[in-house]
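S1.2 Input.
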Amino acid sequence: METYPEKTCSIERLVTHPKLVAAAKAGLKTQQRRDGVYAWPGETFALEDITFIVTRLERQRLGDLTDEHARAEGYPALESYRSMILRMHPGMTWNPDSLVWVHTFEARKDT
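S1.3 Output.
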């Protein structure tokens, strides 16, 4: 079993923006990058009437992000994702060496 660091925030805060909630519910958003750990693999969270399960947690450099990663975040391309992040966090710079936590998730299939 892999060991993960302590959480820095609650899982309920992982995906909160209405546009991103809608994208996750539509299956267009499958990842959320955060500065800290909000959930460990196997944990679940609900977005309105859909339950999601975190399937992976890993570190990633901002400089390693691609358009594919941006689409998994619910954005059409890396530049639009980058622009949104910088608008949301005034004063932040996009440092390619900065590390973020990638939370990968999917809608839980009821059995």
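S1.4 Remarks. The chain has a mean pLDDT of 95.
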